[in-house]
Structures are given as structure tokens and as C-alpha cells.
Amino acid sequence: MAPQHAGSRKRKAPAHEAAAGGSASPGSAGADREGPLQPKKQRRPAPRRSLVHYLKDREVGAPGRAGLPGFERQLSSHAVRSLPEVLTERPLALGTLNKVFASQWLNARQVVCGTKCNTLFVVDVHSGHITRLPLMRDRVPALVGPQPGCGIHAIELNPSKTLLATGGENPNSLAIYQLPTLDPVCLGDRQGHSDWIFAIAWMSDTVVVSGSRDGTVALWRLDPDIFSDCIAWRNVMKVPLYAHIRPKDVEAIPRASINPGNRKVRALAFSGKNQELGSVSLDGYFHLWKPRSNLSRLLSVRLPYFRENVCLTYCEELSLYAVGSQSHVSFVDPRQRQHNIRPLCSREGGTGVRSLSFYHDIITVGTGHGSLLFYDVRAQKFLEERGDAVLDSSPGTARRKLKLTCGRGWLKHDGFWVNYYGGVDEFPNALYTHCYNWPEMKLFVAGGPLPSGLHGNYAGLWS
Q1: Would you call 440 exposed, middle or buried from its count of C-beta atoms within 10 A (0-12, 13-18, 19+)?
Q2: For residues 305 and 327, what is the distance between their CA atoms, to the nearest angstrom?
Q3: Which helix (H) or strand (E) covers residue 104, if one does?
Q4: Distance CA 278, CA 314 (A)
Q5: What is the rounded CA–CA span in Å between residue 103 and residue 119?
Q6: To 10 degrees, the CA torsion angle through 448, 353, 160, 238?
Q7: Does an H or E element contain 456, and which?
Q8: Residue 463 and residue 453: Cα distance in Å, rounded?
Q9: Coil, strand or helix at 208
Q10: What local confidence, expressed as pLDDT, does residue 262 receive?
Q11: Global pTM?
């Protein structure tokens, strides 16, 4: 600004400035009264709060899209609620394999699975091609071979997706493979479980816990030297070599006064936020553990429905565990003494809840009757079909619960099937496992016939 001449006449302050007081500080808006009037600053337009505007800004990479908090969350939440209704099934042929018990996505097109017939395989969901993986063997062969019908019940990837934990050729042993090569790393066959491993959960990239039918949970800590030793041996011998390890701690779950002989650990779920591990046993109890250098039990809770508690999942956002039983899903909040969320009934003919998973507020329920259900925990109700999808719908008419029914799969027509089920050609499949690939909006579902004597399988890609 050019300096004022000494003899220049001062302009008269406007009335509104005089009313504000003439002793404004040098830094205030009215301080420089001898200079020319400053142009009024134009107000910035209010940010557009429309979801449509947000999507357009995101599409062109507008820098201000971070200033619309909550929209990413809204989009994700909307996708979770809307996806199930638009999913369509593409069956996957698994040949004569018997009942898929466990599954996990390895990448955008491969899923690793474990079966009742003790087969570990990778299926390409695009081509349908199946690759069987060799199982690790105990250093000292078991005196009694694997019992028929045990199989691989659990497959879990560590947080960084660099290791995979599952069962060995002996279902009592814990097998660790390296990803993405699926080379064997180590086998937990020393001083571990004396019965089948039913459940596995990772605490970190190098700490994993297994739960067994023998009523114990075991904590395993992987030494980084194991990986370098295995790689060195592979380079020299040109054959896979793996270490044999023992658990750092093994703890038995407490014996209940009711049904004390049925302490089988059936499922595990880890809370990364609280660094706590939940476990479910077939005697109808939920146990909470603190996994540090060893396993410390924090509490035990009697579940409201205690028949066939076979699956467990955890929601980080709600700090809530969900337990699947013969006919209900029960919710456990370790911070609350009482069950504050009422259990939900699957209403699927008492065939039971066979698989569970949480994503945001929605829990996906795989039943023993070949169907998938979707439950909104915050609203405490099942997702429903849209009004235009319901025939003869009218205002005030109750909408149907959204249910995806899986295909027939494959069933072995053997003597057991003829003698006990009269040769019924169609039999609903229990959905023992399901896993989401959320970035590509895909859902892998697998299982097989519920009766233990029937031999068969089901697998499908819903997208």
C-alpha cells in the first residue's frame, strides 16, 4: 500500500465502524482506516454434503474428498447391506471330495480348503482347477493311524498373509505353510494336542493358538530362525524340509459341573483391539483368555444355548463375540455381566448354525440346511428382501427374510445313502465354511451333507 501524504484528509468512519469503537488494535479488521477500502472476502461455498457429489469428486480425484468424513463408512456399510441380495451362485465341482470344513482366500482367484477326508487343496474360482497340497507328517508316526472322518477343521492366515496354519496328516498336529509359495515351514507335533485340532487363531504374525478336541488350547511361538533354516535346506537338498516344534504353553479348559466330559474346544476368535482370545467348548461355555508368554484365563461364561456350539466369530467395532449353536446365535460382550443383545434364532429346522462371520454390523450365518442368512446386529433383525422382489407385496405387508439357498452339490450314492435315507436324490448341504473377498465383492461357500454317514460336497462362488 502506498504511504499516505501528511496533509491528506482522513475519511469519516462509517457508522457501523464507529459503533464498534475506534480503538481497534493494529491487527484488527478496522485498524488501517487511512488506506483504501479492502475488498470484502468472498465466502467459500459450503461443502457439498451429497453422496453423489462425493462419488463424483472421488472419481476425478478431487483433493477435498477427505473433508467429507463418514462417507467412506456409509458407502462400505451400504455395500455390506446391499451385496447379499445381488449375489448369484456359480457352483464349483470338487469331484469326490468329502465335506469341506474350512476355507480361506489366498488371493483374488484362489481359495485354500480343508476336507473331512483330510485333503488340503487350492481351488481356482475362475477356472475351477484344483491343486492338492501334500500334508506334513509327524516325526514319529502315530501308533494309531488317523481316525476316519476327522479331517482338516481349520485354516487361518496370519495378519500379514505370509503364513498359513492348518492341520497335518495327523489331525492332532499344527502345520504351518509359507505364503504365497505354500512351502512347509514347521509342524507342531511335539508335546502338543492328543486329539484333533478343531480351531486355530493367530495372535500376531508369529504367535498362533490352536484348540483341540482333547479340551486344551495351545500357544505356539514361531522362531524366525525356522524360516531361514528351512530355506537353506531347500536350496541345498532341493526338497522341502520343515521343523518340528512344541507349544510354549498348553492350558486345559475348566471342567464344568454340567456335561463335564464334553470339554472339546470347538472354535476360537481373537480380538486384536483388546488382545484377548475367545473360545467355545461343546459343554456350553465361552472362555476368554489373555495370550502373552502363556495363556491366562480371564473368565468363563455359561452360554444361553449350549447344544452344538460349533462356531465363533468376533466383531472389532462392536467388541462382540457371536456363537453359533444348534438353533441360535448368541452374543457375548466380555465387558458386560449380562447378555444385552438377545440371541437370534436361525429357524432352519433345527439343523444348526454351522458357520459365522462378521463384517461391520452384519453377521453372515451359514446353516445346516443349505442357506445363508444375514443379520444386522445394530438393528437386531435379519436383512429382508426388497419390496419389489416380493410377489404380491402391498403397503404394510411384512417383507420376507433375505435367504440365499445353495445348490445341490455332489452326493455319493452308496449303501449308507440307500439304507438310511431311502435313496433321496436331493439332500441339503450344511454350509460348514464361508469366506468373503470384500475388495471384489465375492463370497466363497462350501460344505456337504449334514449327516455324518453321508459322503458328498458342495462349493460355490457367489458374486
Answers
A1: exposed
A2: 8
A3: strand 100-105
A4: 8
A5: 12
A6: -30
A7: strand 456-462
A8: 32
A9: strand
A10: 80
A11: 0.80
What pLDDT does residue 29 have?
38
Note whether 292 and 251 are within 8 A (CB): no
Q: Do the beta carbons of residue 165 and residue 184 sit within 8 Å?
A: no
Task: Give which of 333, 324, 211 is closest to 263, Cα–Cα.
Answer: 211
The pLDDT score that the predictor gives to residue 415 is: 86
For residue 102, give the nearest of 118, 87, 91 by alpha carbon. Answer: 118
* Triad 450, 455, 459: Cα angle to 5°: 70
What is the rounded distance in angstroms from the CA atom of residue 189 to the CA atom of residue 141? 10
* pLDDT in the model for residue 41: 52
- Residue 322 half-sphere exposure, CB side, CA atoms within 13 Å? 28
Provide the phi-psi class of 282: left if phi over 0, else alpha when psi is between -120 and 50, else beta: alpha
| 3-class secondary structure, 58 | helix
Residue 387 DSSP label: G
Q: CB atoms < 10 A from the CB of 336, how many?
A: 12
Q: Is 423 left (phi over 0), alpha (psi -120 to 50) or beta?
A: left
> Could you tell me whether strands 362-367 and 353-359 are parallel, antiparallel, or unpaired per DSSP bridges?
antiparallel
The C-alpha cell of 400 is what? 420376507
| Cα–Cα distance, 245 to 247 (Å, whole number) | 7
Q: Enter the C-alpha cell of residue 179.
A: 505364503
Q: Find the helix or strand (DSSP H, E) in which 174 lies.
A: strand 174-178
3-state DSSP: the chain helix, strand, coil percent, rounded to 5? 15, 35, 50
Q: What is the DSSP letter of 65?
A: G
DSSP codes, 179-205 = TTTTEEEEEE-SS--SS-EEEEEESSS
Residues of the chain whose pLDDT is less than 70? 1-79, 142-149, 228-240, 256-261, 337-340, 347-350, 387-398
Q: Could you say which DSSP state residue 23 is in?
A: -
- Cα three-residue angle 136-138-139, rounded to 5 degrees: 120
Output the pLDDT for position 18. Answer: 43
* pLDDT score for 13: 47
SS (H, E, C) 356-372: EEEECCEEEEEECCCEE
Q: CA separation (Å) from 13 to 32, 183, 300?
A: 11, 84, 78
Residue tagged 499344527 (cell numbers):
174
3-state secondary structure 222-259: CCHHHHHHHHHHHHHHCCCCCEEECCCEEEECCCCCCC
- CA distance to 162, 186, 243, 387, per residue, from 229 (Å): 17, 11, 9, 61
The CA-based angle 229-232-233, given to 5 degrees, is 85
